[in-house]
Each structure stands twice: as C-alpha cells, then as structure tokens.
Automatic annotation (TrEMBL):
It comes from the Bacteria. The keyword Ion transport does not apply. Pfam families: Glycos_transf_2. Keywords: Transferase. One of its GO terms (molecular function) is transferase activity. This is Glycosyltransferase. Gene3D superfamilies: Spore Coat Polysaccharide Biosynthesis Protein SpsA, Chain A (3.90.550.10). It comes from Romboutsia weinsteinii. The keyword Transferase applies.
Length: 282
C-alpha cells in the first residue's frame, strides 16, 4: 500500500492558477493520497473549479470558510489530515508527475522530514524561465544506511526554499502547529522547532515541485526578515542574520530589478535576469 500522503492546498480567489495545481495532483503516478483544500470563501470562480474536480475524484476534501490568515488555514488542513505525511502545495504550485512516487520510494518511518528539489519558475513576455534549486546540504557525516541526517542549520537554510517540497510526519506536525500570530515566517519557526527537536531529515536529489515566483513587495520581505530574526532570537538566543545588512541587500536587489527591467531591451534583460544566472527557457 505504501505511504498515504495528505496534500494541503490553501487558496483564496485562485481561479487563474488552481486548475494547474489540481491537475498536477490528479495526474500523479502514485495515488495513495488525500488532497485537502482549505478555501477562504473565494468569490472569483475558484470553488467552481474545485467542485468540478471533486466530482471526478473522491480524494479531494474541501473546507471553504473564512479564516484569520494563512497559518490559521494551514492549521485547519493539518487538523483534517489522516495520512502518514503532510505536504503543503500552494495554489499556484505544481508537483512533478512522479513526486509522490519518489517520496514513497525513499521514505521510511525513521525519517521525520523528507524533501526534494524545487524549480523556480517566472514568466516574462509570455515565456517561462526556470531554475532548479539543488537543495542538498553540504554535510560530511550521515547515516550510511539511508543517508539521513539530524536536522541542522544547513537544512534550515535549504528547506526555507523547499517548504512545498518538504513532507513531514503527520503525527509530528499535529503536535507542532503553526504560530498564527506570525504573518509570514511561521513555517520557518516550525522548521526551527524541528532543528531544536533534532528531527531526522532526508534530502532526495529529484525535482518535486515547481514554484511560481510572485512579486513580493519590499515591505513584505522586510516583515518576513524581522519575523525570521525574532524567531531565531526567541528560540536560539541569537540570529544567523545581520538584519540591517540584509535590509540594505533587499532594497538594493529590488532597485536593480526595477531599473534593469525598465531600461534594458527585452533580450538583454532576459540575459541579465535569467540566462546569466543559471535560469533556462522552459
């Protein structure tokens, strides 16, 4: 029978993207899963799309009601989860067709978290550019039998970019719900807890999820940074990040993006923004 997966998708007015997300789940080569969708009372036709999929698949579970924020919605999904492993797939993300099959192949019940690689995808002038992130930690010591590690600061750095390709034991995540007081970084706080609890983690070198890159404002980035540092100081009594230096880097990066996008011809911008930085045309 293998592993049963609880895939949780939180959405609100996601009509433009959620069909592709649902398609990527229903087309999995491994089908022992439930797909829990937590909708915040969408008004744009999102629910019509979900209901159509529910008529085609008994694996879809829908809860549509108002929530107090994304982490409140995610906790509702955790409460409904009945699988062995939980993963959060955003309403504009997609799985690779063999994502669940690969996780099932490499998972064993001594592993607390298992994750793979993520492909960042961004659209420019009607074309999609992508970059796969190899999120394997550079570590010398491992369990030779199954290559598992105790959760480390290296995993924290990598998993931040792979939350939607990270599968967590359901029993563990039910005991470590997301902090609903945080607006952006409660998932980082969760993984920080996994680090403190010395959970066992395994990385597999395969692309699991495709993640669409959105336009996050500088204000949101700075709020996320502040929450990130607060979590580390509260829980570790120190932070890995120089917050003032990082805020300057955020402002500089956003300024360069705006200037180059407005001044460079499209072909030069593609070379500067994507091709010279390891991205490729999908």
């Amino acid at each position: 029978m293998g592993v049963k997966f609880s895939i949780i998708t939180v959405c609100f007015n996601s009509k433009q993207t959620i069909e592709e997300t649902l398609d990527s789940v229903i087309k999995q080569t491994y089908n022992n899963y439930e797909h829990i969708i937590i909708d915040g009372k969408s008004k744009d036709g999102t629910l019509d799309i979900i209901n159509r999929y529910m008529s085609e698949s008994k694996k879809v579970i829908l809860l549509s009601e108002e929530d107090t924020g994304i982490y409140n919605a995610m906790n509702k999904g955790i409460d409904l989860a009945s699988g062995d492993l939980v993963v959060f797939l955003n309403s504009d993300d997609t799985f690779e067709p063999d994502a669940l099959e690969l996780i099932n192949k490499y998972y064993n019940d001594k592993i607390d978290l298992i994750y793979g690689n993520v492909s960042w995808q961004e659209k420019f002038k009607g074309k999609i550019y992508e970059k796969e992130l190899n999120l394997a930690p550079n570590m010398s010591q491992s369990n030779k039998k199954n290559n598992t590690h105790i959760m480390s600061k290296y995993h924290l750095e990598k998993i931040q970019n792979a939350h939607n390709a990270t599968f967590v034991k359901t029993a563990i995540i039910k005991q470590n719900l997301f902090d609903e007081q945080l607006k952006i970084c409660s998932d980082y706080k969760f993984f920080l807890n996994m680090y403190i609890q010395k959970r066992k983690v395994l990385h597999i070198p395969y692309r699991i999820t495709n993640m669409k890159m959105g336009g996050i404002s500088t204000t949101q980035l700075e709020l996320g940074l502040e929450e990130h540092v607060k979590c580390e100081i509260d829980m570790l009594k120190y932070s890995y990040i120089d917050i003032n230096k990082r805020k300057l880097e955020i402002k500089k990066t956003e300024l360069i993006k705006r200037i180059t996008k407005s001044l460079l011809p499209p072909k030069m911008y593609v070379r500067f923004r994507y091709l010279n930085k390891g991205w490729s045309l999908k």
